[in-house]
Each structure stands twice: as structure tokens, then as C-alpha cells.
Amino acid sequence: MSDSISAGATRTAPGSHTADAGAPDPRRWWGLVVIALAQLMVVLDATIVNIALPSAQQDLGMSDGNRQWVITAYTLAFGGLLLLGGRVADLVGRKRTFMFGLVGFAVASAVGGAATGSGMLFAARAAQGVFGAVLAPSALSLMTTTFTDPRERGKAFGIYGALAGAGGAIGLLLGGVLTSYLNWRWCLYVNIPIAIVAVVGAVVLLHDRPGHSEARLDVPGVILGCGGLVAIVYGFSEAESRGWGDASVVSLIAGGVVLLLAFVLWQSRAKSPLLPLRILRDRNRAGCFLTIGFATIGMFGLFLFMTYYLQGILGYSPVRTGLAFMPMSLAIIIGSTQISARLLPRVPARALMVPGMLLAACGLLILTRLGVDSAYATHVLPAEIVMGLGMGLTFMPVFSTATHGVRPQDAGVTSAMVNTSQQVGGSLGTALLNTIATSATSAYIGGHLTDPSHKAQVVAAGVVHGYTHAIGYAVGAMLLAGCAAAFLVNAEPVAHGGSATPNAAH
């Protein structure tokens, strides 16, 4: 017995008038605009404050040791609570949690923008993460239940994948513009009008099946799963400043792993599990989760190092730095909407994902040749375009394949797993690659600084050496993502009568 949302949903019995098959909502594409706005807001906030951070630090008197919490408070709450947010969406109803998340995110943004001290800003960023953890899986699961026709699904997920891939770079540009021409607070205030438009649009345009209120929330699963994720994400974030060998870092990561193992054991026995293991047993979904996790490690490494390289080495302003990322955003959009969305109904998902990861790895490989005097046009721009096309080819089939054929009552938690894989990958990538870069820089400077009069040149060369050394590891992460897609994802093109999840029937 298959639990999939059939690729041939339109082939129903004569006289059937279901909303999905007989009469598709004529306003569903406007509904996609609403969902896309909400998703863009969540993705933007992972990077928009990066460029604004120096201004916020000076304005609020933050110490260098504490400034990371502007970023970490958001990613910690967001990554740790996504599974809970996805299951709440399944139980209560996705439209309700979508609107609740939007309103809460806007209020938290307003508080953060009005912050009078660092503690107030940290708390507001954590609240943004909490509401984002409710909002993100609701948005993706609404996509899953709204677009079931294979060709429409390809177009819709192409747009969604483009936003997921390009949103980080767009956030860097928008953060630079708002910080330069207004002030850093507008990097938070900008969410308020976006959320208002999205809430109004959700009320008018979005529809959803009722929540599955007969099921119960898995409280032990919430404690074990969310606790494990929070511990691991927190451990990754602390490793950046304390080092991987620090006792507290090791304890957090080890404790998080133990909690997650206990979580898996509990999920196999729970009557209403937070994460039904049938979702992970499906090889296509498992392959997609691994692919997006490894891919995000490499992608966040690019954002992290290229932001510092463009501003610290090439001397770019915040706005110019943001603009420098735009070619990659455009390449992601083209790869996702013009290539993946058109080909996915005709070719297997891995036929897009594997070449996409190889392209992304090649783009990063170009960046390992950077030097202190490298030019943007000859070194950075080609790498951005190649990597952007690769990420665009990959993101769209990952989102579409991971959520296709899922049971309606599991749509939220499946969507949350996609986002969780992305968030944990991003947190790991930032902490791991930054630690690798810092260590390589210190070793380079220690081995080359023989003449104090050349200190500035040696330090600059050491910093770039650290970046390129760490980017080499990011190349490895992209290749691992390609391997996960090649060996695990075997979904057939749905337009040709295949199932996007051939092993989803349980």
C-alpha cells in the first residue's frame, strides 16, 4: 500500500471534485508568492546581520567574545527546534502555524531592532529562531500539499529552491545596503513589512487540510531530539572560539550525540513519534537529507570566507561586497528555475543532483587558487557562477524529492528534516571551516614571519592561505554530497509514470 501523493493526482475517477484533482485552486501561484516571501525572510535572517554586526557591536557596546551570539542565538534556536516546529505544524495545521510563525517573527524582529543592549538583541535573535523553526517547515509542507501535479511541482519547487540557495547571498547584499544607507537596526525592521504582507496573503490565498489533532505530541521525543540538536549546534558554535579540544565543546557534542541515539531508540517505540523512522528509512529522503547537509557545509564556507576576503583583503565596502555575491545568486536562480525545474519531470533526480554537486565542487576548487592580489573578475566571479549553477541544479530536486510522496500527517516533520539538515550543515560548516582556517593561518604566519618589517604582508598572505586551505575541505564536503546523491537517491522522473519515492510505501 503506497502512502505517496500520486504523481498522477489528476487521474481521479469521473465525477470526483477533490480540490487537488478536479479543481486546482486558481490562486495557488499567488499562494506560492506568499510562501516564497516567508521562506525568503527566514533565509535572509541567517546572513543579513553578518555585514551589520560591526555597527551593532559598536552601537551596543558588545565585546568581541559575545558578538557571535547575534548569529549563534538565531541558528541555535532555529536548528534545535525545527523538528518540534514541523510536528506542531502537522498536529495543529500548517496554515495556522505558518501565520503564527510570521507574527512571532515580526514581533521578535521589532524587539531586536529596538534593542538598547546586547542582551536584548541576543534574546530577540533567539526568539526569531524559535518562530523561524515553526515557520520554515510550515512553508515547505504547504508547498508539498499545494503542488502535486509533476510539472507544476517542478516550477514551484524551482522557485523555492532558488530562494533557499540565493537567499543567503541576497541577505548579504541587503544587509550591506541597509547598514550603509540607513543603519543596522533596519536589518531587523525589514522583516516587519514582509511579515505583514505574508500574513494578509496567507489569510486570503492559502488553504490547508485540518491538523491531525487525534495524535499526541511526543514529549520525550521533543526533549531528546531537540535537546540533542541544541547541544550539537551549540557545541559547533562554541568550537569556533574555544577550539575543538575544549572540554565543554567535546562534552556538548558527545552529549548531543548520546541524546540523538536515545532519540532514535525512543522513536522506534513511541506511539506518536516526533520523527517517524519510516521517513528516514526511505533511501531517497535519507539521500536528500545527507546531500543538502554536506552541500550547506561547503556553501556556508564560501559565504564566510568570501565576505572576509572581499572586505578584509580586497577592501570592498559592505554594499560592494553584497553586490559581489549577486552573480552567484543569479546563477542559483537560473540553475533552479530554468534548468532543474524543466528537467526534473523528465530525468531522475540524481541526474541533476550529482552533476550539480560536481559543479559546485569545481567552483570551490577555483577559489583554492586565490592569492592576496587575485582579481574579482578572474578568480572570484568564475567560481561564483560555476558554484551557483551547481547549487541551483541541486537544491530544487532535493526539496522536491525529499517531500514528494510523504503522508499528509508527516508533511511538516519531513519538511522540518530538510531544514534541519540544512541548518546543522551550515552550523557545522561555519564552525569547522573557520577553525581549520584559523589554525592554517596561525601555522603559516608562524613559519613565514622572519622579518618584522614584513608583518603586514605575511599576515595578509597567511589569512588568505587559511581561507584557501579551509575551502579545500569544503570541496570535500561537496563531493560527499554528490556521493550521497549518487548512491542513495534513485527516484524516477514523475512525469513518466515513475514515483519520486519508489520506496516510500510502508
Can you give a write-up of this model?
With about 500 residues, the chain is mainly α. It folds into two domains: about 30-215 and about 275-495, MFS general substrate transporter like domains (Growth Hormone, Chain: A), CATH 1.20.1250.20; about 220-275. The chain has 18 helices and no strands. It has helices spanning about 30-45, 50-60, 70-90, 95-115, 120-145, 150-180, 185-190, 190-205, 220-240, 245-265, 275-280, 285-315, 320-325, 325-345, 350-365, 375-405, 410-450, 455-490. The radius of gyration is 22 Å and the shape is globular.
Keywords:
single chain; 506 residues; mainly alpha; Growth Hormone, Chain: A; 18 helices; disordered N terminus; disordered C terminus; antibiotic resistance; membrane; EmrB-like; transmembrane transporter activity; cell membrane
Structure, briefly:
With 506 residues, the chain is an all-alpha fold.
